[in-house]
Write a structure and sequence with these properties.
This protein is an all-alpha fold. The protein has helices at about 1-40, 45-60, 70-75, 85-90, 95-145. It has 2 domains: about 1-75, no CATH class; about 80-145. It is built from 5 helices and no strands.
Length: about 140
């Protein structure tokens, strides 16, 4: 009985953490969007928010565990955010018949550039993180000697 109570308690804690993290990320995105609109920025608030979040995580002013579970859930369920384009395709069939090839080519080029840009940035971050770990290990070893 105690084991099932502990399991249930852990489950509730996990779900509560997930809800708080996703809500916090959504609130942060909304606030960044408001800030971008208030200063009439040409850069979208979501991009500004990602930049700020990257800086906060990079300088460890925001621990990774604060957003880890929520961001993993959002990425895992990202497919749900692609449902509106499917509805738009069925609604604007005549537009697709007229400009379908151009639109598809633009979408493919845009998606490819985003994927390549993301891959380059992730690769550089992994190399940076590896270098940081190696520096930490070498400094720890030098302190032991």
């Amino acid at each position: 009985m105690l084991s099932s109570l502990n399991t249930h308690s852990a489950f509730l804690k996990c779900k509560t953490t997930l809800i708080v993290q996703v809500s916090g990320l959504c609130l942060f995105a909304w606030l960044c969007q408001l800030a971008a609109q208030s200063v009439h920025s040409v850069i979208p608030g979501s991009v500004i928010g990602l930049g700020i979040l990257l800086l906060l995580l990079s300088y460890q002013w925001l621990p990774e565990k604060v957003v880890n579970q929520g961001s993993a859930w959002l990425i895992g369920d990202l497919l749900l955010f692609f449902i509106p384009p499917v509805v738009a395709i069925t609604k604007y069939k005549s537009l697709l018949e007229s400009y379908g090839a151009e639109l598809i080519m633009c979408m493919l080029l845009a998606s490819t550039s985003v994927l390549l840009g993301t891959a380059v940035i992730v690769d550089k971050l992994f190399k940076f993180e590896r270098k940081q770990r190696l520096n930490n290990l070498s400094s720890q070893r030098s302190h032991l000697k």
